[in-house]
Write a structure and sequence with these properties.
With 511 residues, this protein is of the alpha+beta class. The protein is built from 21 helices and 12 strands.
Length: 511
């Protein structure tokens, strides 16, 4: 028979095990589920983006400008004639690659004797929203207009359990080398981390370094400005509203620095950057010289820290990209200027230079300039395209964290490609005109779109209103081009005859 002491010890053992499971497993998962339901459609003023994008009757069209916008003919799926090469990836190739990655990852775990982390199984990835996202990328955009899996992927970015944390690949390439005396810091020291999820998903985490209401000081140069996590989130929503669909999905998230970063990383260099501040907050900094610690450190309150989580595109092994210098890149010094900044006829040379002399590459650069002008992002020195789609591949709008820094200033030099070349896609101009109308006002649909992010409010009201002002500046620039060069020389028809009823004389564009 069991003695009273033995029974007591057994009960104590099971109670302790249950308490540990409750604290470290059950409660965190319940907390994550609660985040999903923060903005229940039944709550007054709440907004469900998935319902809007799928055309659900959950919202009254009289209350939702965003739903009304996405129901407009300009935002309906067009009957594009697709060829076998239009998709970026073939499913069989992706499945084969994922099985190989799972085998390698599990073999590495076994050699380390690691039994505490998730066993990677390719079937988990094959059923995930990550795979749906990757398989939907084609030569027209990163994702379709109305597929609900994008909204489900945004939810995953905000709540799915993290399995491992590490430095990003460019940070590792620096191997800890950086010079804090340099004016322009290498890209790897901007304090961003690689998050790996249990279903093979990967994302970049950029922590909060500046409060939303803080404007970038007037004397700060664009190349030493803060990177803002909320700018990454807002840029995704703006890109989607403009119907470019060239920004990978981004969601806001609050991480527990101790439990979700420090405890999950196997990188000893990263672990060594954690410390406790005088206010008893958990902090960490970029892998750099010790003298850089104060400059780059970020701290939780005391453990929680918000940031942006940006979904990875498919691995370069199966989807190669090309890095190209922006013809309108800036000098990144205090004194030297680039040719485009001093030569108003600079675009004439670009128009004669391959691949900008044919196809859509120049028009895609102008799209990117309009997008960057609306966000206020001056830091577009390079861009990337998918190699598979050749010279007409759309430009992927990566790295938007230096946008939304100044709501009180409009940097017209960002619009140089549009102003100097006087060209614009018909589809782009149609949507800009639509978003300037009261029923579809850009600031209103942006405000509504951002409501469902976990870190809402993402932008302050002055930044939202600045979008309307800058949109009008873009239309004014197009108006001047039309006055000097005429419709046929300015507007490139990429949508066919369906929208020929639209008026493109200069006065109509201005309105």
């Amino acid at each position: 028979m069991w003695s009273a002491r033995s029974r007591f010890l057994i009960v104590l053992l099971f109670s302790t095990a249950f308490t540990i499971d409750l604290l470290f497993n059950i409660l965190p998962k319940l907390q994550q589920r609660s985040i999903r339901n923060l903005r229940c459609p039944c709550e007054e003023g709440s907004f469900n983006s998935s319902a809007v994008l799928r055309g659900s009757p959950a919202l009254d069209t009289t209350l939702s400008k965003l739903r009304k916008l996405l129901s407009h003919p300009l935002y309906r799926e067009q009957n594009l004639v697709r060829t076998p090469g239009d998709l970026l990836l073939e499913k069989d190739d992706v499945v084969k690659y994922c099985k190989y990655k799972a085998k390698v990852a599990n073999g590495r775990r076994a050699r380390r004797g690691d039994v505490t982390h998730t066993h990677y199984h390719s079937q988990v990835y094959l059923a995930s929203n990550w795979l749906k996202f990757h398989l939907a990328i084609d030569r027209y955009a990163l994702y379709p207009r109305s597929e609900p899996f994008i909204d489900h992927l945004l939810e995953d970015l905000a709540v799915v359990d993290i399995s491992e944390v590490d430095y990003t690949y460019d940070e590792k390439a620096l191997n800890g080398r950086c010079n804090c005396k340099e004016v322009v810091k290498p890209s790897g020291v901007h304090l961003k981390l690689l998050l790996k999820f249990q279903n093979f998903g990967k994302a970049i985490f950029k922590p909060m370094k500046q409060k939303r209401e803080e404007e970038t000081p007037a004397d700060v140069f664009y190349f030493v400005d803060f990177q803002r996590h909320n700018a990454e989130i807002a840029a995704f929503h703006l890109d989607r509203i403009l119907d470019f669909r060239r920004v990978p999905p981004v969601a806001g998230r609050k991480l527990n620095l101790s439990r979700e970063i420090q405890d999950l990383t196997r990188n000893e260099d990263l672990k060594a950057t954690f410390f406790i501040s005088p206010e008893n907050n958990v902090c960490f900094f970029a892998r750099c010289l010790y003298s850089c610690k104060t400059e780059y450190a970020v701290c939780g309150k005391p453990h929680l820290l918000e940031g942006s989580v940006s979904a990875f595109l498919p691995d370069l092994y199966i989807a190669q990209r090309e890095l190209i210098e922006n013809p309108w890149s800036r000098s990144y010094t205090f004194t030297v200027k680039k040719e485009w900044e001093t030569n108003p006829s600079y675009c004439d040379k670009i128009k004669r230079t391959p691949p900008y002399n044919t196809g859509s590459r120049l028009l895609n650069v102008i799209d990117m300039a309009i997008f960057d002008f609306l966000t206020g992002n001056m830091d577009r020195h390079h861009f990337e395209v998918f190699k598979k789609f050749g010279k007409d591949s759309y430009i992927i709008h990566f790295d938007n964290a230096r946008g939304f820094g100044k709501h009180s200033h409009d940097e017209l030099s960002i619009l140089a490609p549009l102003i100097q070349c006087c060209r614009i896609k018909k589809s782009t101009l149609l949507r800009l005109k639509l978003l300037s109308q009261p029923d579809y006002r850009l600031s209103d649909v942006m405000r509504e779109s951002l409501l469902h992010d976990a870190l809402s409010p993402v932008l302050t009201e002055p930044h939202l209103l600045a979008l309307d002002r800058r949109l009008q500046a873009v239309l004014n620039a197009v108006q001047k081009c039309l006055q000097h060069r005429g419709v046929d020389n300015v507007i490139k028809d990429d949508v066919g005859d369906e929208f020929d009823y639209m008026d493109f004389n200069s006065s109509a564009v201005a309105r």
